[in-house]
Amino acid sequence: MGFEAGSSSDALRAPPPPREDTPLLGDPQQVALSSKSKTFANVFIAIVGAGVLGLPYSFKRTGWVMSLLMLFSVAALTQHCMMLLVYTRRKLESSNGFSKIASSNGFSKIASSNGLSKIASFGDLGFTVCGSTGRFLVDILIILSQTGFCVGYLIFIGNTLADVVNLSPMIMGLAPKSFYIWGCLPFQLGLNSIASLTHLAPLSIFADVVDLGAMGVVLVEDVLVFFKHSPAVKAFGGVSVFFYGMGVAVYSFEGVGMVLPLESEMKDKDKFGKVLALTMAFISLLYGGFGALGYFAFGEETKDMITANLGAGLISTLVKLGLCVNLFFTLPIMMNPVYEIVERRFSGGTYCLWLRWLLVLLVSVVALSVPNFADFLSLVGSGVCCALGFVLPPLFHLMVFKEEIGWKGWSMDVGIMVLGIVLGVSGTWYALLEIFFPTE
Questions:
Q1: What value does the mean pLDDT of the chain take?
Q2: Spatial CB neighbours of 199, under 8 Å, sequence gap ≥ 6
């Protein structure tokens, strides 16, 4: 944060609370620009998370060939939709008279005093293209996706601790999973009460190191188990589980909300598309290898969290506990975008403790009610991530480029939107059936 030169009274004046047109992120011009290698790492960190641990179970349900095809297809489609957002912002930034007015083409505009674009986030783009309705739609989906991730974290923590610290079938009258989730609540209330989480940022790096370490340990264990005995595996799981697998795949590649900030921070923006494509290809291979090896090693015994297949032992226990610590401290960081949106809408952009505590309580209650980690990944991936990743990007792109793209462009954008809606509705339905009426 800096002060305007030449006015001490302005420097001492507190900034106004955020409004509907206030960007969620700061001016990208004030951020040190990233090289291609750093952008590669940032995209990797933004996408790869704990959801990868549910991939082997998805391979078991849908078959390894079908799962690989879905992963690679979802990766390509996600990369395409991310670039649609980038192209849409570039088009709007290049427009003349870029200010917060209704222009001749009907779009609401945002501009800073020096004429630089303030479209720093997905929500800002939604507001620029569709006004308050666009911002509201993006805000709702971001809230649902971020809280969905946090619910998944708590499910993982509860199930993992119940497996590692198996004291008794009931602890203080509660099932072990419920006991550990409730046990996290007071500490999470404290962590989520911190107004600024800047000093927790290094923990995100720790989280990714632990994730990669856990994946490495699991991969080694998978190879060792596979060479000892090779269980029977299936290539295709049938049409009935297609939407389930798609939901997990979409969840695993979720990260569309970070693509605009990452592109803003890259030094050579013309190379961003190639770097993004390379990163998505690398993640696809990593996901495919991780999911396939996990399924090949354990076959029909593959658990909803592959770490549950590691069994007892010092290394496996340390991996499980490390992941729990990682997700425990990542949760308040993941909830921060939710607080920014909710506090902007309900408390004038000012810090509100009771709203934060209410949200943490709701996340915990939902986590208590969902029994299966992978089933919940499918639900969030289908119900939220499909809309965020496959419906809104082509919609915004179509609205901005409708006069230029021709019938092929129209067909492509409309086709992706229809696909996203079909996958979202069908996947949500099948995921809910699996949660409330499990077939296994």
A1: 78
A2: none
Task: Bin 309: left if φ > 0, else alpha if -120 < ψ < 50, else beta.
Answer: alpha
Dihedral, 199, 204, 205, 208 alpha carbons, nearest 10: 170
Q: Give 169's contacts (C-beta < 8 A, 6+ positions apart).
A: 175, 176
> Hey, is 96 helix, strand or coil?
coil
DSSP state of 240: G
Give CA separation, 238 vs 62, 66, 381, 410, in Å: 7, 9, 20, 32
- The answer to whether 21 and 271 have CB atoms below 8 angstroms apart is no
pLDDT at 111 exceeding the cut of 60: no
Spatial contact of 143 and 334, defined as CB atoms under 8 Å apart: no
In this structure, the chain runs to a length of 440
Q: What is the pLDDT of residue 21?
A: 42
Q: What residues are paired with 117 via a beta bridge? A: 111
Q: How far is it, in rounded angstroms, from Cα 226 to Cα 337?
A: 42
- CA-based torsion, 216, 219, 223, 228: positive or negative: positive
Q: Which two tokens stand for residue 336?
A: 């921060």
Q: What is the pLDDT of residue 287?
A: 92
Q: How far is it, in rounded angstroms, from Cα 92 to Cα 114?
A: 16
Overall average pLDDT of the 62-68 stretch:
92
Q: What is the pLDDT of residues 341-381, one digit of tens each?
A: 888 888 887 888 899 999 999 999 988 887 766 677 777 87
Positive/negative CA dihedral, 109, 113, 116, 118? negative
**Cα gap 368→155, rounded to integer Å:** 7
Backbone angles phi, psi at 174, to 5 degrees: -120, 150
pLDDT at 434 (0 to 100): 74
Residue 231 has pLDDT above 70, yes or no: yes
**pLDDT at residue 196 in the model:** 64
Rama region for 111: left / alpha / beta (φ>0; ψ in -120 to 50; rest): beta
Closest CA to 332 of 209, 184, 139: 184
Residue 207 CB-half CA count within 13 A: 23
Please name which of 254, 350, 248, 344 lies closest in space to residue 295, comparing C-alpha atoms. Answer: 248
107: alpha, beta or left, given left = phi > 0 and alpha = psi -120 to 50? beta
